[in-house]
Amino acid sequence: MTDSPKKKALIISYAFPPSAAVGVYRILKFCKYLPQFGWEPVVLTVEEGHSHSQDPSLFKQLPDDIKIYRSKSPAPLVWYEKKTGKGPAAGVAPASEKAKSSGSSAPPPADTPPPPQSMASRIKGYIRRLIFTPDDNCFWVPYGVSKGMEAIKNEQIDVIFSTSPPASAHLIGYWLSVRSGLPLVIDFRDLWTQNAGYHLKNKPAPARAWDRFLEKRAMKRSSCIVTATDGFTGQVLEKNPYKTPDSVVTITNGLDPDDFASVSFPTEKNDRFTILYLGSLYGARNPYFFFEAMQHWLAQRPEVADKVRVEFVGGGEAYAKATVGTPLESIVRFVGHMPQQQALSKLWQADMLLLLLGFGDTHTTVIPAKLFEYIATGRPILAFVPEGQSAGLIRKYNRGAAVTSPDKDAVAAFLSEQFGHWQERSGPPLSKLDLPEEFDRRTKTRRLAEIFDSVRKSH
Q1: How much is the pTM?
Q2: How many CB atoms lie within 10 A of CB 1?
Q3: Cα 202 from chain centre
């Protein structure tokens, strides 16, 4: 280690403070700890991203002298959707209208076709999916390349590191590597076209072919590929035989002990058995089956209805409609985004934690960043996940129930068990940080620094 790092890495990330999107924390911690391992991070990001969550306090975790280059990132599609109230940017995709009108809270199947569209809407959708490749942030690329070359010239960069999503960051990294001759390291927090859910984007064939072409160019240019899970690493190696096992490595997400230094532990027992979900809700990560299972449990145990509370922290208010007219209406509440420290304290104030991934096999290789925080609290977890890596982690650390199919009876049994533990307890649950060494963000950053050293030496 050195106190005066001279080697510099250009970190290309759309997600960066003050944005508090979930992808921010991986990059934030890399930037925080890289100087301890001889690398100075120089960040290339956007002037103004489109994350609804902001947390300026995150800047306090960065080195005081960090250089941040911000470029323009035109997003005409986001601007249009916000202005007109149409499309994903306008809010959370609602549940099936049929389910709402019938009063059912059952989740629409993942493969439920969208409602019929007019010819004009279909044409617009086709053009959108054709033009916006690899993603809606593709217009960031020329501005990012221009600003990135400025950073490379000013800062004497040694390595380029791009992280996604969005995949447009890798195109910026690719072109900067081509123009500067510097080695490129690619980081997949989520995969690109290799993603198991890629087909859900419904891109036209020409866009899929162009997307794959761009991906292959970037991946072939890279000296090393980093992924967030072993499952992702396996997929990259399987579908890209030109990559060797030593050129594709896993650095999972994790935890920073410093984040928990000022966490407030509960001092008394909750007045109700409290279930907490932390994070965004969207797509398969929706609470509909959970609501259905909760009602199933309450039908079996009506006497507990006034002794239970469910909190969703981080948004998702649109899903509250599914509780109207049901016993859950007085039990479930939605809370908006909270600063990181406040949100972490909420974890310890809960009696049980909820994880929602859905049951589809598109998420078998996914490990949500929040799962590491959940595990570290020691609180029991009720997870709706497919058989895969998230389920494996919960079992490895004996942290609760990984429900891998829509089994309402299994959920009701686990709820009864945990509710019973809450009833028997006279005070707050045991609260301490249980941080497995494999979760430590500092250790993970050391591994990234080793990769930077290796590609710099061999380039």
Answers
A1: 0.81
A2: 9
A3: 22
